[in-house]
Amino acid sequence: MRLPLLIATLALGACASPLPQPDPQQAWVDLQIRAGYTLMAHRLDNQRWDDGRYFQVSPGAHDLDVRFQFEVAGGGSDFSSEPVTMTCHLRFSYADFAAGQRYRIEARPLQYKAQGWLYDTAGQVLTRAKVQRCNTFG
What we know:
Distance between the termini: 7 Å
Largest sheet: 5 strands, mixed
């Protein structure tokens, strides 16, 4: 119960500060999610990324890791059991980030797993996420 509360608190704190202005020499990656889910930037090229609301990357190839949280109906054989929180770690590998361009990451649940996509500004899918792992937290 404490982990979801901690994540919600951190997310609210991040929302309180304004986003930085995008650097025109870098690419900007927004995270877009439906209400009720949590999607946070986590690592850029295997290094911890401090602001969970976006990525800003130099042109070229990068690996973007995000954390995606969502609830699913009870995890046991008892259908009346409480929902469980799933946390999935997704990786987006893309070789052609361009300076001054905006990109968008979206994710959605797929039962006890997740799916994710990286889009360009025209809405074209550039790559699909690779699910690194998914864990339950009750």
